[in-house]
Amino acid sequence: MAGRVRGPAVAELEIDLEAIAANYALLCERARPAAVAAVVKADAYGLGLAPVATRLSAAGCQRFLVARLDEGVALRRLLHEAEIFLLDGVGRGEEETVFGHRLVPVLNHGGELELWAGYARSLGQRLTAAIHLDTGMNRLGFSEAAFGRLTAERLEPLILRLVMSHLACAEEPEHPLNAIQLERFATATAQLGEVPRSLAASSGIFLGAEYRFDLCRPGVALYGVNPVPGRPNPMRPVVRLTAPVLQLHEIEAPGTVGYGATCPVRPGMRIATVPVGYADGLLRSASNRATARIAGIEVPFAGRVSMDLIGLDVTAVPREAVAPGTPVELLGGPDGVDRFAAQAGTIGYEVLTRLGHRFRRRYLGGGDRR
Ligand SMILES: *Cc1c(COP(=O)(O)O)cnc(C)c1O
Predict the structure, then answer these.
(1) Contact 290/343 with Cβ under 8 angstroms?
(2) Are 258 and 218 members of one domain?
(3) Which residues pair with 297 in a beta bridge?
(4) Domain stops at, among 223, 255, 285
(5) Beta carbons within 10 angstroms of residue 6's beta carbon
(6) Is residue 12 in a domain?
(7) Do residues 183 and 147 both lie within one domain?
(8) How many Å lie between the centroid of ligand 1 and the Cα of residue 216?
């Protein structure tokens, strides 16, 4: 091991709330005249529900979507006025909690609709709801036929706040399913009158005006991931992950790095060990494939990602620029998350939602300015 006593071995995840607010503003501009709701499911894609939702609310966002009931309950405690949609809908036994927290369930099938309508009747009042129409993803939502059978009488106990569908291939503008889903959605919902309609998530906003309807529902683009893969990222970067070098090895004899001995090294190479691993969300599939940066120089992952550690080949970094304690940028810059995701064989969504909780988390720009 070379040299000096190391500094504190602390990885830091910086989350730029100002950038999230700026991304919200940019998406609002692109979506206009449609409104924009923020998707904050899965702890705001791993970045922290409370700071993210509070900042978005301060930026003027009034509608939010979460997946699970407990996410909706947590969000209601933070935001008293916001309209909060539950993508998972309402299950038996959950009616009171949904109603008590003024959450709007997205009804995905007839049984769920009957449950919520029945609860409304038992209360003697109409209840807000949204309806999900499946236009080709075969994941959630009423089939077009079942949607067509929704009579005024069945809907009477409900105040419909939204009819929505979800695109399967929005990040591939040329994919034929986009136009098919658009056509199905437009046709099936043509008779709805005043009920707001929503089809586009992050990438859908960029498919063209006809995809935007009344409300867009971006998630990942708010958090800096590129909604238009293959083109320059219009979003501001939100996360930056850095960690200090823990130990530096001057390789003196031929050998290998890490578990499984998958990465050969020869004398003259230098390997830096950094205290982040797959338990922190640096996916093991990034082994021997991903890159990080030291002093702006790209350094390849050397060997397998361990639970708590990775090795980096820092041979290309000038000797004086790397020592124990030197900061390494693991995620950062305009395409940081997307680049790491591609290297690890996954998508930015998974990289964000896997980010662990052992980092020191630092939020930038958390004020309540508009
Ligand atoms: C997650 C989700 C979104 C947000 O998608 P992004 O691609 O992150 O913008 C929107 N709508 C539905 C139904 C979702 O499940």
Answers:
(1) yes
(2) no
(3) 294
(4) 223
(5) 17
(6) no
(7) yes
(8) 10
Q: How many CB atoms lie within 10 A of CB 157?
A: 21
Based on the domain organization, do 315 and 178 belong to the same domain?
Answer: no
CA dihedral for 129, 134, 138, 143, sign (positive or negative):
positive
Same domain, 176 and 94: yes
Pair (282, 307) in one structural domain: yes
Split into its structural domains, the chain has a count of: 2
Tally the C-alpha atoms within 13 A of residue 344's C-alpha that lie toward its C-beta. 28
Residue nearest to atom 6 of ligand 1 (CA): 219
Question: In this structure, are 213 and 243 located in the same domain?
Answer: no
Q: What is the CATH number of the domain that holds 271?
A: 2.40.37.10
Q: Catalytic annotation on 45?
A: no
89 and 219 housed in the same domain: yes
Torsion of CA 76, 355, 362, 314, to 10 degrees: -170
Q: Residues with Cβ < 8 Å from 252, sequence gap 6 or more? A: 267
Catalytic residue among 24, 45, 119, 259: 259
Beta carbon of 47 within 6 Å of any ligand 1 atom? no
From the list 232, 236, 222, 243, the residue with the least C-alpha distance to 333 is 236
pLDDT at 298: 97
Cα separations (Å) of 144 from 59, 138, 150, 177, 216?
A: 36, 11, 10, 16, 21
Residues of the chain with pLDDT under 50: 1-3, 6, 368-370
What pLDDT was estimated at residue 192? 84
Is 3 within a domain?
Answer: no
- Please state, in angstroms and rounded to a whole number, the distance separating the CA atoms of residues 18 and 247: 34
Same domain, 257 and 151: no
Tell me how far the alpha carbon of residue 171 lies from the centroid of ligand 1, in angstroms: 12
Domain span at residue 130?
17-223
Residue 202 near ligand 1, beta carbon < 6 Å: yes
Structure tokens at 41: 């499911």
d(CA 328, CA 244): 6
Ligand 1 atom closest to the CA of 171, numbered from 1: 7
Q: Is residue 65 within 8 Å of 87, Cβ to Cβ?
A: yes
Give the pLDDT confidence of 275-327 residue by residue, as tens digits.
999 999 999 999 999 999 999 999 999 999 999 999 999 999 999 999 999 99
DSSP annotation string for 268-286: T-EEEEES--GGGT--GGG
